[in-house]
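Field log, afternoon session.

UNIT: design team B
ACTIVITY: writing a sequence onto a fixed backbone
BACKBONE:
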């Protein structure tokens, strides 16, 4: 395997995603930073112009065709992807009570947060299996944790993250025979982004920290966990 690692980050054009790209690229990792349209990628293009190893690509993870075309382009250029960060996400039912939830909104949320992540794993994990190396980080949320539910609302978003946690744990089990492929989920905390809102106390750079830490774990580290602030968080 080459010394230079390759990472994909979805939803990389803003928020926590773009900070994740910046932190990985600063470590010399070749980042394939994805957005849904080139018009949204000026900040990523600027990083590449500064000399950071950032390559901009397009993918809409809610579309199987878009993920397939993206995977074909990437795997033609890079034989394997070392790190997959499933960061893209939507929160379409903030504070909506379950009894008032439009089921189409729940479907749209699952399409991105859960099925989109699975599509990306299905597209890229086989190349990790072939290489015998991989770090998969699914960006989850403490709001998906079932251990400490203190308030109702946001069922679509929260259940999509609960299911994402389940995907993380099950995929880690399925990859047990590949000891150097680690699958973990991260909780960024409450972060000031379009999704998190203006009142959030954390910066996007702080929100990206645990994800980047999981993405760069050394061989022999744990797999199949949920982490916040670099520590295990209850499912
Ligand atoms: N902010 C928080 O407080 C917080 C807390 C816990 C967890 N998280 C999680 O952290 C991750 C990043 O959130 P953020 O706060 O940075 O949100 P954000 O600023 O709203 O960014 C979301 C990103 O996801 C992309 N995206 C949405 N739908 C997509 C699709 N179908 N295909 C590809 N990309 C898509 C967006 O692209 P467009 O620009 O094209 O829409 C954008 O780049 C999410 O998974 C979120 O659930 C955030």
């Amino acid at each position: 395997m080459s010394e230079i690692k390759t990472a994909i980050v979805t939803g990389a054009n803003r928020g926590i995603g773009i900070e994740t790209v910046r932190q990985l690229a600063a470590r010399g990792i070749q980042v394939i930073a994805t957005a849904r349209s080139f018009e949204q990628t000026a900040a990523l293009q600027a990083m590449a112009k500064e000399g950071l190893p950032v390559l901009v690509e397009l993918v809409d993870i809610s579309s199987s065709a878009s993920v397939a075309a993206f995977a074909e382009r990437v795997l033609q250029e890079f034989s394997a992807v070392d790190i997959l960060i499933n960061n893209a996400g939507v929160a379409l039912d903030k504070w909506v009570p379950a009894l008032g939830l439009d089921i189409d909104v729940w479907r749209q949320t699952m399409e991105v947060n859960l099925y989109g992540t699975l599509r990306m794993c299905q597209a890229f994990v086989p190349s990790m299996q072939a290489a015998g190396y991989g770090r998969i980080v699914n960006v989850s949320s403490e709001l998906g944790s079932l251990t400490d539910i203190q308030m109702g609302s946001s069922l679509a978003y929260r259940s999509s993250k609960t299911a994402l946690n389940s995907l993380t744990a099950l995929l880690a089990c399925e990859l047990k025979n590949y000891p150097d492929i680690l699958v973990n989920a991260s909780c960024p905390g409450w972060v000031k982004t379009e999704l998190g809102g203006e009142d959030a106390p954390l910066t996007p750079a702080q929100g990206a920290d645990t994800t980047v830490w999981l993405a760069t774990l050394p061989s022999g580290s744990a797999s199949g966990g949920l982490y916040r602030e670099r520590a295990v968080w209850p499912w």
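LOG NOTE: The longest helix spans residues 103-131.
NEXT ACTIVITY: expression trials, pending approval
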